[in-house]
TrEMBL record:
UniProt source species: Lebetimonas natsushimae
UniProt superkingdom: Bacteria
Residue stretches making up the Macro domain: 1-149
Matching PROSITE patterns: MACRO
Pfam families noted in UniProt: Macro
Name of the protein described by the UniProt record: Macro domain-containing protein
């Protein structure tokens, strides 16, 4: 099931929250900044992931424990490419599709809260991204709430 809701990720609770992140898993601005403020230990969880698995490729995801109350896990989606020498830093729609595929392959049950991927700093068209996300997430057995502002 996919539900589109106007609001802010801070207004919801779920099993997972999607963080449109970057390939080096650095908590910056946007959703990352909100999550960092809500739960300062989150960067430690991301650092543990990096130590074990390394950095992400564009379109990949990493799932970390969310050591605070609002969510159980954070799905960090590599929207922006911050790897040294990256040719295409900004996202494209194919990257959003890859992220959606990776999410539905990794999350089989539960409630996933997600903002529109790549539409903030990434600058992608909100309508097109919403259609991509709805198309992919409807294929999943998990429940998705896509949060729009």
């Amino acid at each position: 099931m996919v539900e589109i809701i106007k609001g802010d990720i801070r207004d919801f609770e779920g099993d997972y929250v999607v963080n449109p992140s970057n390939t080096i898993l650095q908590l910056g601005s946007g959703v990352s900044g909100v999550l960092r403020q809500m739960c300062p230990p989150l960067q430690d969880e991301m650092n543990k992931y990096i130590e074990k698995h390394g950095f992400l490729d564009p379109g990949d995801i990493a799932i970390t424990v969310y050591p605070c109350m609002e969510y159980k896990y954070v799905i960090h989606a590599a929207v922006m490419d911050y790897r040294k020498g990256a040719v295409q830093i900004m996202p494209d729609y194919e990257r959003i599709e890859k992220i959606c595929k990776n999410i539905i392959n990794s999350v089989k049950a539960g409630l996933v809260i997600s903002p529109l991927l790549g539409t903030g700093v990434g600058g992608l068209d909100k309508g097109k991204v919403l259609e991509i996300m709805k198309t992919y997430f409807q294929k999943s057995s998990a429940n998705f709430k896509i949060i729009i502002r």
